[in-house]
User: Which sequence fits this backbone?
């Protein structure tokens, strides 16, 4: 089965003398241009006491730099009608701006100015502390956030995937401005950054301008490689949370391979077989999170009325992470019953694997999703940057080819390796109380 | 009206053989997908006593049609790399097919069968009822949803469609029967709705293709709009909802507003953008987050619809800061109406709003939203091309007038919901 993936047209890839990687993907007929800067720095590079620093730095990057005093950065983009944002992951942090194509130079100037010179004054760090805490507290209103955070804390005892990129509230309250600035100076530098520009652009003009803006930056950025390895799990781990909510639910995690490991294609297919969503090869950024009636979890848990929703998720990480499964009980159905049904299904897949017709369907789903994965400059810049950070050159195309040639037997073997009970982590959420008016 | 000659927005209008209205927007350059929406007068404003009926109908429509049950429909969509989704609003329902442009023709029967020949499979009805029951519980346990629901109840009287969220109640949803669904479908989906297409096919070919696919559409007269009771004047006290367990209190301030067809809409639109609709450029964001660090999110929206409208300003903060955040929100809302904004501020907001239209044209899905909006509100073909000119004609004084008319603090209600403690709003 053949497929293709990638932007329409060639991508210019080059590295400046200071180590900055640059990818330019012209789309001559686009009406916008998207500029992304990816840093190989995320919560994986933090340590206890400094958790949440990558995310906090992300906030500080909007609080001013030499040429763009506080408030002017956002304004410069927004006044063009453009959009800017950023997000922090466990493995990376990304800054994105999409503007009407005529205004391409504005985000480039901002990114060059703040890459190594973002302002981290004590006063601004202090002011941002309350906002970062507020963002975390907003998430805490969601039982699903609490459960997922608990799952990673349960699964990782040593590796920094243990904490959420938002960090522990205690660390956010205590981290000092000089420690945050030191974290920023240590990791944010040209060697750890990848600049991606996609959309309507003049290639030679842009190459020149990128050189003018970014070449003067000093070479910098400590190696963000994580050397900690999570010790092998030797028995099931399980915990229970209680709190307000709708119906009970659980999050289950299994040890998953890192992005460059051989078994990744089979595990990606296993995720689609179970949950139905093609996440890495998708026409949207991370899939649609909707119902997939032909998926196994839907057929075994939702269709018979045990659960109102059930899904799986495998996002390949730089280091071994988790393959997660979550299910929310239908009213009146116990967690035990849903969990038993799920485990029976996982045993069945590990024993018998998918059918050939299921394999045909999920491969076709991947092939079709890949065809539309690069629609628009923003999505194009996202994918180019994501794969540049996590993979090797040509990795995405190679991964797609391997996914499409993976056999049912390989998916079964992946399930057998993934789902043994002694590597399982389970967080169950039981509902208490409710709301009352005053 | 002067139009922007560079604008790639090229809405065209046509019709199907049976008279169904058609709005077409070409796919953005470089895009290889299409979107096609059937827009039906099938919102929850037509629920009557069976609250939740419109929601059930719209969600069931995409679970199979004609000879295809849910699994067969899902497999066929997957085979083409397509999706079929539905959304329901107070006034209308949208059923949208999205997929690769080259599969446009073979996918049309899937939309036609779903819209015209839904199956009302009892298994699907049961599953949907269970899911709706869970969503109803979420409206009672999640602070943001609790606050919104309570706000709508404060600003709209009994019987007003905007008072509801469409989910019905634990009593009404189980009482909805198959004959109820069939009756609703006949009245609200087989009448002449509107087709909206963002695709490569030129208008004449599109008209032929859709006429053929939707042949047999047994058109019934369009339903008459329900009687809309006038909005109420909310009492001044703050509604406080204790929702335990979370860390943050959600604040909502809002009131009834103008419909989209109101001539004052451009000024009201800019007033809302200034207040909280334009993210970091907006006043509530600057005041509550940037200056005082009280919140992570603070924004406003103006929902100007067919039968009326409403505005909502929202923010989330910790329990000990609710009072301060509430005072600041109310002050900013009042200030937009009291005083004309400085020209420089208005210009910034206005040019940002105009420029952002280009971002809507990045992908088929985003461009399609503009086309659906135009169809829904029966906007003229040149509406978006002339929109910049109309916005640029609005004066600062008109923005303040627009705010007084559309974001009226004297007819607003305040709701807070979350882990309220002793130090929270009195």
Assistant:
């Amino acid at each position: 089965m053949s497929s293709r993936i990638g932007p329409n047209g060639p991508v210019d890839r080059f590295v400046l003398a200071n180590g900055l990687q640059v990818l330019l993907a012209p789309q001559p007929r686009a009406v916008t241009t998207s500029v992304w800067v990816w840093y190989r720095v995320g919560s994986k590079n933090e340590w206890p006491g400094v958790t949440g620093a990558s995310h906090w730095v992300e906030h500080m990057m909007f609080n001013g730099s030499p040429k763009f005093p506080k408030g002017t950065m956002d304004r410069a983009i927004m006044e063009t009608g453009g959009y800017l944002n950023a997000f922090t992951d466990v493995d990376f942090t990304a800054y994105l701006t999409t503007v009407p194509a005529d205004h391409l130079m504005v985000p480039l100037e901002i990114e060059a100015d703040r890459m190594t010179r973002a302002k981290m004054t004590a006063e601004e760090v202090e002011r941002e502390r309350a906002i970062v805490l507020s963002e975390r507290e907003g998430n805490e209103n969601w039982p699903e956030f609490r459960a997922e955070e608990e799952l990673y804390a349960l699964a990782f005892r040593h590796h920094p995937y243990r904490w959420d990129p938002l960090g522990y509230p205690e660390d956010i309250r205590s981290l000092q401005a000089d420690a945050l600035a030191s974290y920023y100076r240590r990791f944010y530098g040209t060697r750890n950054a990848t600049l991606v520009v996609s959309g309507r652009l003049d290639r030679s003009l842009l190459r020149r301008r990128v050189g003018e803006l970014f070449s003067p930056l000093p070479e910098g950025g400590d190696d963000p490689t994580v050397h900690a390895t999570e010790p092998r799990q030797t028995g099931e781990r399980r915990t229970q949370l209680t709190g307000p909510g709708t119906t009970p639910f659980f999050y289950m995690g299994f040890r998953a391979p890192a992005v460059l490991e051989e078994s990744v294609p089979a595990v990606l297919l296993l995720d689609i077989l179970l949950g139905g969503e093609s996440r890495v090869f998708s026409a949207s950024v991370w899939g649609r999170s909707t119902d997939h009636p032909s998926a196994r979890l839907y057929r075994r848990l939702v269709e018979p009325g045990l659960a109102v929703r059930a899904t799986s998720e495998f996002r390949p990480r730089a280091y071994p992470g988790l393959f997660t499964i979550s299910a929310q009980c239908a009213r009146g159905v116990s967690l035990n019953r849903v969990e038993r049904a799920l485990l029976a299904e996982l045993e069945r897949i590990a024993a018998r694997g998918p059918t050939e017709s299921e394999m045909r369907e999920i491969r076709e789903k991947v092939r079709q999703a890949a065809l539309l994965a690069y629609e628009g400059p923003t999505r194009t810049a996202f994918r180019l940057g994501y794969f540049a950070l996590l993979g090797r050159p040509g990795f995405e195309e190679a991964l797609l080819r391997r996914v499409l040639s993976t056999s049912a037997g390989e998916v079964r073997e992946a399930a057998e390796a993934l789902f043994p009970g002694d590597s399982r982590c389970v967080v169950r959420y039981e509902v208490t109380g409710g709301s009352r008016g005053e | 009206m002067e139009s922007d000659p560079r604008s790639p927005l090229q809405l065209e209008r046509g019709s199907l053989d049976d008279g169904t209205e058609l709005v077409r927007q070409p796919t953005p350059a470089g895009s290889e997908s299409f979107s096609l929406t059937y827009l039906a007068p099938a919102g929850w404003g037509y629920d009557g006593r069976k609250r939740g009926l419109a929601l059930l109908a719209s969600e069931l429509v995409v679970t199979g049609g004609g000879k295809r049950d849910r699994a067969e429909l899902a497999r066929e969509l997957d085979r083409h790399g397509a999706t079929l989704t539905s959304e329901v609003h107070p006034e209308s329902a949208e059923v949208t097919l999205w997929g690769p442009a080259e599969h446009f023709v073979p996918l049309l029967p899937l939309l036609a069968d779903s819209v015209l020949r839904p199956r009302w499979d009892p298994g699907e009805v049961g599953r949907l009822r269970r899911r709706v029951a869970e969503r109803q519980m979420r409206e009672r346990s999640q602070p943001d949803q609790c606050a919104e629901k309570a706000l709508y109840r404060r600003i709209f009287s009994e019987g007003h469609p905007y008072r509801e969220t469409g989910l019905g109640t634990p009593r009404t949803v189980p009482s909805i029967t198959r004959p109820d669904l069939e009756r609703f479908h006949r009245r609200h989906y087989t009448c002449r709705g509107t087709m909206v297409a963002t695709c490569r096919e030129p208008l004449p070919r599109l008209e032929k293709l859709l006429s053929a696919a939707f042949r047999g559409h047994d058109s019934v007269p369009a339903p008459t709009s329900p009687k809309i009771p006038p909005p109420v004047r909310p009492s001044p006290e703050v509604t406080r909802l204790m929702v335990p367990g979370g860390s943050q209190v959600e604040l909502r301030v809002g009131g009834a507003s103008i419909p989209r067809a109101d001539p004052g809409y451009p000024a009201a639109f800019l007033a809302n953008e200034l207040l909280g609709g334009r993210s970091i450029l907006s006043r509530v964001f600057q005041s509550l987050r940037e200056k005082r660090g009280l919140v992570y999110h603070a924004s406003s929206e103006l929902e100007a619809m067919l039968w009326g409208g409403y505005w909502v300003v929202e923010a989330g903060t910790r329990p000990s800061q609710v009072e301060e955040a509430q005072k600041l929100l109310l002050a900013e809302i009042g200030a937009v109406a009291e005083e004309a904004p400085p020209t420089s501020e208005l210009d910034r907001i206005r040019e940002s709003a105009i420029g952002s239209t280009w971002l809507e044209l990045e992908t088929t899905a985003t461009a399609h939203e503009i086309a659906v909006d135009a169809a829904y509100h029966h906007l003229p073909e040149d509406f978006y091309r002339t929109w910049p000119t109309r916005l640029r004609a609005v004066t600062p004084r008109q923005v303040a007038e627009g705010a007084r008319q559309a974001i009226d603090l004297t007819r607003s209600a305040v709701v807070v919901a979350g882990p309220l403690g002793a130090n929270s709003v009195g």
About this structure: Confidence is low (pLDDT under 50) at residues 422-426 of chain B.
